[in-house]
Amino acid sequence: MIFDDQIIKNFTSIRITNNQKMLEFPGGYMSNNGHMTSISFGRREMNKKLITMVCALFCAALMAGIASAGEDGPNGKNLAEDKNATCSSFEKDDPQFAPGKAVDGYKQTRWSSNFFTDKAPDDAWWQVDLGDKTAISFITINFEAAYGKEFNILVSDDGKSWKKVLEVKDGKPGENIFKLPVPAEGRYVKYQGVKRGSAYGHSFFEFGVYSN
Prior knowledge:
- The chain has 212 residues and is mainly beta.
- The chain has helices at residues 5-10, 48-70, and strands at residues 13-16, 23-25, 28-30, 37-40, 84-87, 111-112, 125-143, 148-156, 163-168, 174-196, 203-210.
- The strands form 3 sheets. Strands 5, 6, 7, 8, 9, 10 and 11 form a 7-stranded antiparallel β-sheet that branches. It has a two-stranded antiparallel ribbon with strand order 1-4.
- Residues 1-46 and 53-70 have low confidence and may be disordered.
């Protein structure tokens, strides 16, 4: 938790960083991507003693929520970051939508499957080579508005023979966090589209692979 001295002095807001779950509450939200969040409490002319008490109670409750949220969420480094990624297609063959954009560490870039055809493919796929056989417990996908409604996650040791480790029927835009029913191992991890959630293709800003 990070408190800005000037902010506390002015009693206008408190800023909090959380690298685990996304928590929503009146006046703001907290993202598991580590985004900085601002919570407004009003101007200096408000009763400072009252605000101090509210801040203390709010922060205590929030910290309890953070501890609870982190118990079943991914920890550590995204093992897919900066690794080699390939896909079935990407939008207009434009490099800004290439498969590597989903593992480049930037939250604003994204992979987008091609959809400028008579029928956008539901079964578009994207995969990443982790470099070595790796233990996998969590998958995170930060979808754009063009999201996958139904999809499977598969793993492979050689990039040819695949094993399904997760089946999703209720994907949604934004951050999706999945704990594998059974921890898996593999060098390659594939997102296999089954059904799109929009008229466009499959697109996500970030794809995360975590051991724990």
